[in-house]
Amino acid sequence: MVFLALAAGIAGADGEPIALVWSPGLASPDSPDWVGLHRLAGGQIGLLPEAGMREGGEIRQIDTYDPDALYMLISPPDRATLERGELPVQWARALGIDGAPDAGVLRGLRFLCSDGVQSLVRLPESLRGVLREPGGRVQELPRPREVELRTAPPAPPPVGARDAELWQALANAANSDRLFADLDYLSTTLQTRYYSTPEMDLACEYVLAEFEALGLTAYFDPFTYHGHELKNVVGVTLGSVDPAQIYIVCGHLDSISPEGETLAPGAEDNGSGSAAVLEAARLLASLPCDYTIYFICFSAEEQGLVGSEHFASQAAAEGLDIRAVLNLDMVAYHEPQGDDLWVEGFYDGVPSVWLMDLVQANAETYADLLVYRYEGNGWGSDHVPFHEYGYPAVLSIDNEWYNYPCYHQTCDTVDWLDANLWRSITATNAVSVAQLAQVQASVGTLDGKTVLPGGGDLADVSLHLVGTGYAERTSAADGYFVWNAIFPGTYTLVAEKLAYETVTEEVTITGGETTTVELVLEPVGSDVADAVPGNPHVRLQIMPSSVVDDVAIRLDLPAPAEGRLVVYGADGRLVGTPLRWAAHLQGAHTLTWRTRHTDGTLVPAGLYWVRWEEVGHSISKRFVVVR
Q1: HSE (CB half, 13 Å, CA atoms) of 623?
Q2: Less Cβ around it within 10 Å: N or C end of the chain?
Q3: Which of these, 260, 394, 264, 236, lies nearest to 320 by C-alpha position?
Q4: pLDDT at 4
């Protein structure tokens, strides 16, 4: 067991004052009176008797410690807001303040120390109400208290290189199309997932139904917060060797904004993490594993980690043997400069350094991500309560999380998300939990042949396993193609060739077996399945269906028509017009859209639709932009 000292234990018998100090090193100060509270990158916050403080030393007193004071750890956006003399929107909401606060509200606010990411501030009593509904990455400074923690379980042995093919196949199988499909409901159909709204209940029901459809043992984990009946959503696949040994992959489902009750789409924060949990479940639920996996979507994270605190405290009370917790929060916003993935864990108490090592290695090896390893202790997300109850825990978050322009705003919509980064961070965590739980699987093979019944060159048919990380294939001169080392599961196979109808087929891969398919491509105009009512010969084709830069659009109009060709984002907003309104248009036209706004800036990665529109009729084709 691990014990933390009480603050009273370091005070003298006469009740001498205690100093809240900043120690610049990552090693604990050499003093028997030292009580560490929290580690930031580059230094530690802790307590020492004021009488023992030396003048001019490296250790700097930042306050006289008051156990009743409001010491808060806040993010860079919140610090910048406070420095402007304003309140973060959720703080203003909790206090019932509309607009700029009165001068007296912030009187007594003190910035104590910072590492550029976490800032420790002492809030005046006028802001005590923010504890009711904090919002943001924010938490109270851990307080000295006597806590009995579980003895940290041993780290599992390293995963052998013999399984590298399997883990790479699993990483490739993570599917951005499925991620966007989940988010289409959670963040677009549902305009908010604020913790107390009916829409949040619908989001929980959606996740539960998805877990049940996968064959997981799924249930609601209910709790009460400020008079509201809330619930976490849990899906479980039991281990066959030692089911008592548990590994968790999780993220919070709720969202927040200044208009939370009506408009808080929360696509990045944290629809992206919730959808990643669902995708990990889809990849792993049907496969046997030695140890148990819990897939969890938490509620009321934005109110101060309420749902995860409830679950972790219950787990500790029941003596659950949770070996590791992988938390995903904001995993789909990308800026091209710098690193891709921010990995954050704990160095004090029950450390999770080994778990950070695992996630970083898998991100670099199987998802080709550049990883930043935060040197401070984790904070402000659902990994924290698990750590506090003695469970190793780690956070995956995109590296630019605190630069996200729509952080906790009504503009946090799907068009900000980067499909490639999102899929890659999802893959990293799916591989990590699969290794920890010892998922048992083997790869399969997909081979097939393309057929052009009217004759023509069989070569150069483009073949995609849509939404995955598997490399595109091109058919050979005899029409054959093959993918080796595919993770078991169901995939959407698409075959495309200009002047031919796109063929889409669902294929199921079984481990250790070969799946064979034959794809017949008909010339454009031979099939009217996608016809526009009233003009049955219009054809629209996208090449390819997943693009990085330019997308080629083929429009066939055998009869004269009047209309336009436009591109819409997943949120329904017009983002491009490859062909403006034209009359008496006829024949085959191949146009290029450069995946840019009219001002020349690149559109974000995500799901888009090209639509031919004429009076009273339209036809659409979907494609994905990846960056």
Answers
A1: 26
A2: N
A3: 236
A4: 36
